Amino acid sequence: MLAARAIVRRAIARGELAPDVPETLLLDTLTGGAMMHALTTPAERRPGLARHSRAHAERLVSFLLRAVSGPPPAGDGRS
User: Fold this and answer.
1) Where does the pLDDT of residue 67 fall: very low under 50, low under 70, confident under 90, or very high at 90 and above?
2) Closest Cα to residue 52, out of 34, 72, 70?
3) The predicted structure's pLDDT at residue 71
4) Distance (Å, whole) CA 23 – CA 19
5) Is the pLDDT of residue 79 over 70?
6) How far apart are CA 60 and CA 76, in angstroms?
7) What is the pTM of this model?
8) Vertex 10, ends 71 and 12: CA angle to 5°?
9) Neighbours of 66 (CB within 10 A)
10) Count of Cβ atoms closer than 10 Å to residue 8 Cβ
11) How far apart are the first and last CA of the chain?
12) Which residues contact 78 (CB under 8 A, 6 or more apart)?
């Protein structure tokens, strides 16, 4: 978990995350979301879960980054 905290702190230092982002809450949400997804997947769907774990992790991280970053600045070309 120390390595994950260091990653969050570097993102804050680079301005990729707001300085007031609570790193523990961010990491708890990330690991909790991944763990609950795995724990609540029915046994018959677990082989698919294993095959698609990277895609799920990317969606989860993307969602969390949008949540803690807020909307993109006006005029940056994203919609």
Assistant:
1) confident
2) 34
3) 64
4) 10
5) no
6) 23
7) 0.73
8) 35
9) 11
10) 19
11) 34
12) 72
Smallest CA-to-CA distance from 23 within 57, 71, 70, 68 is with 68
Kindly state the tokens that stand for 45: 């769907």
pLDDT computed for residue 1 by the predictor: 80
Contacts of 1 (CB under 8 A, 6+ apart): 27
- Taking each helix axis from N to C terminus, what angle separates 53-69 and 23-40, rounded to the nearest 10 degrees? 150
Whether 18 and 12 have beta carbons less than 8 Å apart is answered as yes
Among 64, 58, 62, CA closest to 21: 64
Residue showing tokens 């006006």? 74
d(CA 33, CA 35): 5
| Residue 61, token pair as written in the block | 């991280």
- CA dist., res. 29 & res. 36, Å (int): 10
